């Protein structure tokens, strides 16, 4: 057998084996959830209220409303793929400083929320939180905010409702697009059970959209936000930060100036 054919066969076998392994462990790669016991007591410096919602399939979704006096409205915050509410409280308290209440929820399988990862059910869950928020605030007082995979949930929710604005930070165009950049040698479209196709929903969003992305983001390439922007050129601002990466935006000068303008109006 020619050496080139041996190399080709070996490469093919390795790629198939790697693809099979990744298919079965992808939950652990995509979702970096940190669980919390049901009796865990949250403690934050800002005023807060703990909320529990029940899903149609009988699971419990846990969330926290971080409150300010004389609130101008509320930010419904769908966090990234890692951690839990306790981890993301820093973002909530940061947003509180602009005179807004913040509701952060844990997805099923995160924090004190029960259930297993399922994209369709998680999208349904995201709507439950908006429906809950509408009971407390008029829609012209609701800003929907999504970070990372949370951008898919936030965009989906905004496409089905009428919030005042949609803010997407380090947004995902689709998980396949993101994976193709990270692992171009794998058949990602076949491997991935989860799609997170934000591009399917952004065209139906009726409110003002803001896309913020660091150009040095090595986890979610900024082309994700560029591609989303191309689908929604009208009433959609793309804000790229040359020195921003996936973890340092909250300290980035352009980010801080932009968020102040976005949340203060």
Kindly describe this structure.
- The chain has 9 helices and 10 strands.
- It is an alpha/beta fold.
- It folds into 2 domains: 1-30; 45-264, 3-Layer(aba) Sandwich (Rossmann fold), CATH 3.40.50.
- Strands 2-3-6-4-7-8-9-10 form an 8-stranded mixed sheet, with helices on both faces.
- α3 (119-134) packs across α4.
- The longest helix is centred in the first third of the chain and has 28 residues, at 3-30.
- 38% of the residues are buried.
- The model has no long low-confidence stretch (mean pLDDT 94).
Distance between the termini: 70 Å
Strand content: 15-25%
Q: Write down the secondary-structure element order.
A: HEEEEEHEHEHEHHHEHEH
Q: Tally the structural domains.
A: 2
Q: What is the CA-based Rg, rounded?
A: 20 Å
Low-confidence stretches: none
Task: Report the structural category.
Answer: alpha/beta
Total number of β-strand segments? 10
- Principal-axis shape equals globular
Main sheet: which strands, in order across? Answer: 2-3-6-4-7-8-9-10
CATH architecture verdict of the largest domain: 3-Layer(aba) Sandwich
- The portion of residues assigned to helices is 25-40%
Predict the CATH topology of the largest domain: Rossmann fold
Instruction: Give the averaged pLDDT, no decimals.
Output: 94
In DSSP terms (H or I, runs of 4 or more residues), the helix count works out at 9
For the biggest sheet, the summary is:
8 strands, mixed
CATH class category of the largest domain: Alpha Beta
CATH superfamily of the largest domain: Alpha/Beta hydrolase fold, catalytic domain
């Amino acid at each position: 057998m020619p050496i080139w054919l041996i190399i080709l066969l070996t490469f093919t076998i390795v790629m198939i084996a790697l693809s099979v392994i990744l298919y079965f462990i992808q939950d652990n790669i995509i979702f970096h959830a940190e669980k919390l016991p049901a009796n865990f007591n949250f403690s934050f410096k800002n005023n807060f209220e703990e909320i529990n919602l029940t899903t149609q399939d009988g699971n419990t979704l846990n969330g926290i409303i971080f409150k300010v006096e004389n609130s101008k409205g509320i930010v419904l915050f769908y966090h990234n793929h890692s951690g839990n509410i306790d981890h993301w409280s820093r973002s909530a308290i940061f947003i509180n400083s602009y005179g807004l209440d913040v509701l952060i929820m844990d997805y099923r399988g995160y924090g004190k929320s029960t259930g297993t990862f399922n994209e369709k059910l998680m999208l349904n869950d995201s709507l439950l939180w908006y429906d809950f928020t509408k009971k407390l605030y008029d829609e012209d007082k609701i800003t929907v905010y999504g970070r990372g995979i949370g951008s898919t949930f936030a965009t989906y929710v905004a496409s089905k409702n009428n919030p005042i604005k949609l803010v997407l930070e380090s947004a995902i165009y689709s998980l396949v697009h993101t994976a193709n950049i990270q692992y171009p040698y794998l058949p990602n479209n076949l491997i991935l059970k989860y799609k997170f196709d934000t591009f399917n929903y952004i065209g139906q969003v009726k409110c003002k959209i803001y896309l913020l992305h660091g150009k040095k983001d090595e986890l979610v390439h900024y082309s994700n936000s560029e591609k989303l922007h191309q689908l929604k050129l009208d009433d959609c601002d793309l804000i790229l930060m040359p020195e921003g990466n996936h973890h340092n935006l909250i300290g980035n000068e352009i980010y801080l100036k932009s968020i102040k303008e976005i949340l203060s109006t």
